[in-house]
Amino acid sequence: MSHPSLQSTVMSSHADIPGPFRGNAHEMDVEAGTYALGPRSGRLLVLTGRAGLGAKAGHDLTIEVTRWRGEAVVTPDDLASCRVTVEVEAASLRVREGAGGVKPLTNSDRVEIEKNMRDKVLKVDQHALITFRSTRVTGNPQAFRVEGDLTIVGATRPVTVNGALADGRARGRATVVQSEWGIRPYSAFLGALKLRDEVELIFDVRLGG
C-alpha cells in the first residue's frame, strides 16, 4: 500500500492549493461516498517554524501524527453536503525531520522534543485526543474550504482548512495559532529561541481503493 513520501507531502503544502489540482471533470475522479481516514489512507503532518534572536540555533520541524482516525462524507457535486471528522491521539506525534539549525537534529533531540510535546504542550495525560469536526464546506472539488471546530488541550476554537480533490486523493492545509488554544509555544535560552505561534497542519489522503 503506497503513501506519498514525506518530501512530496510537505512540498504540496507550500504550493498554491488550487493550482496543482486544476483539471476537468474526468480528472476529478473522487466518487461520492463515505471514506474511512487514518494512517493507512495517507499522512497527517505538523510543520513548525522558529522565531526569536536565537532562531538560527533551532530547527524547523516536520512532525507526523502516527495514530489517527476519521471519516469523510464526500459528495463532489454538492460540497455543502460534505462533512468530515478526525480524532488524533495526542501522544502519537513523532518528529520526522528537522531543517536548519547550527547542528543536525539528533535522536536525543527528537526524544526530548516529543517528551516536551506530550508533557508540557499537549498535556496528554489530561487531554488524550485532539478532535476536528466540520461545520461548513464550500467551494468546488478543485478548491474547497472546510470550516470546523478544532479541540486541543480541552479548548475548542474555529479553524479553516483549504484543499482540493484530485487523482482519488484529498490534499490541503490549515494554519493553527497555538496561543488561541491557550498553548504557550516552546521556548529556550530565556526566550531567545522559540517556536512560532503559527503551525501548519497538512494532509494528503487517499479516498477509495
Task: Describe it.
The strands form 2 sheets. This protein has an 11-stranded antiparallel beta sheet with strand order 1-5-6-8-9-10-11-14-2-4-7, with helices on both faces. Residues 13-27 and 189-193 have low confidence and may be disordered. The chain has helices at residues 6-14, 107-121, and strands spanning 33-37, 42-47, 50-51, 60-65, 68-74, 83-89, 93-99, 129-140, 143-152, 155-166, 169-177, 187-188, 193-195, 198-206. It has a single domain, classed as Lipocalin (Beta Barrel). By secondary structure, the chain is mainly β.
Strand-residue proportion:
over 45%
CATH topology: Lipocalin
Spans of at least 5 consecutive residues whose pLDDT stays below 50 are: 13-27, 189-193
Number of domains: 1
> Within the largest sheet, what's the order of strands?
1-5-6-8-9-10-11-14-2-4-7
Shape: globular
Helix amount:
10-25%
Counting helices, strands and paired strands, the structural category is mainly beta
Radius of gyration (CA) equals 17 Å
> What is the CATH superfamily?
Lipid/polyisoprenoid-binding, YceI-like
Gross CATH architecture: Beta Barrel
* Spatial gap, N to C terminus: 10 Å
CATH C-level name: Mainly Beta
> How many helices?
2
Query: What is the string of SSEs from the N terminus onward?
Result: HEEEEEEEHEEEEEEE
What's the average pLDDT?
84
Number of strands: 14
Q: Major sheet: size, sense and barrel closure?
A: 11 strands, antiparallel
